[in-house]
Fold this protein.
Amino acid sequence: MTGARPRVAVVGAGVTGLTAAFELLSALPGAEVTVLEAEPVAGGKIARHRADGYTVDLGPNGFLDNGADTRTLADSLGLGPRLRPAADAARERFLLRGGRLLPLPLGAASFAASPLLGPVAKARVLAEPLVRRASGEETVHAFLTRRFGSRAAALLAAPLVHGVTSGDPWTTSLDAAFPRIRALERDRGSLLLAALRGRLLRAAGRAGPPPRLTGFADGGMRVLVDALTRTLGERLLTGRPVTALRPAPGPDGGWLVETAGHEPVRADHVVVTVPAPAAARLLAPLLPGAARTLAGVRYAPVRVVSVGYRRRDLAVLPRGFGYLTVPPEPTRVLGVVHASVVFPDCAPPDGVLLRAFAGGAEDPGFAELDADEAVAAVHRDVTALFGPAAGPEFRHDHVWPDAIPQYTPGHGARVRALLDAVAGVPGLHLAGSAYHGVAVNECVRDARRAASEVLTALRAAGAAAPAAPRSRGGAPGPRDETPRPTPRPLTRHEEKQRDRHDPGPLGTDRSGRRGR
């Protein structure tokens, strides 16, 4: 393979696949990278609807700025000037309980005055520093019960999980879905003391501000996907479902990536970034055990219902980021993002945009409702809080039948075994939301992990990086005249995680701070 032009096929053009392709081209401009996407439009769950002055993110509405991966990607694409943090007015968050929006306490004083818990439950929460560390994996509900007591768990477990994975707190693995929370317990012993220490360090100017949701001006998260697709140009082939992966015959090895109605794509490496069920079908002839693991990953359906109102038609204007629902509140809506408070440019100056999400692992039937019925349910709920508008002037309804993978107990061990098995097949790589996290930051990070694996293998094989390729018409390729960003070096932790194949409300991060 020495001196050959490296060939890489990326299966799937969600943010993971697009980022993996971009990273490979940035490091090896002469590589032949092909991205194959079954749908007619790239982007996966990062989608957008625009009408009547409203802009709706149908999936994640941002990423948290406490991770460098997505921000670095945006800067590499020249999108730095378009990054926009959530408005200061969106710092407050609420829980819907007893028909009222109650502020989520953010400090000791607000916790003491909060009606969310009674005196006995508050005393149990304050005893959290005395609780010993756990020795094994726990569900989110079990973890919160052990550390903060049953009443606090009843209050917080469902909103925490619903806001991130739309899952079931009784069956969601804390270790897999919220590893940072587990790391706080492991490293600090107490979550309360760790939070207090962070506040004191920030007050003393020795630590940065808390993580903040960040998106893109004039277009939402789709801006990131559009920039990636423009950069990849002809290398991105949409409407091209991959039907099979076969080892290529001959002494050079490699892969044949078969697609319906087209000649197979030859590749030295294949990066599979499609959801777990689709990946399982491709791996079944090659690694039956790994395929069974992938087939066992369940996805929760999510319905995103967006409604817009004129400000003058509401008695109370929404404030803060939004709210999550505390069971057993008589509503089927899991949470509502006050979208026009978070990012004011997503609605007209006289408009209010609310983005509700419902369904999930505990109420999949909501995704099957008639569109009018779903919109009516959301309108009824939000006007009970903000009313009295007769109806929304803007409405949009979107269903993701297989929206978010569910990380059940044992997920981390299964992923490690799965990726170890895949690592034994030369030239085959997996990445995506089914493995190490569902948020945008984590998908981008996983894409970079997979790209790093490919680059390491190519360098070990002595693959050269020849001059930048020409396009099919003989003109310079889409990236030939642009500078290539140099990927940042991996930290020691990331190198260790890469070598072990285990790196680490809609619109929330995995610590429970509110994009999917």
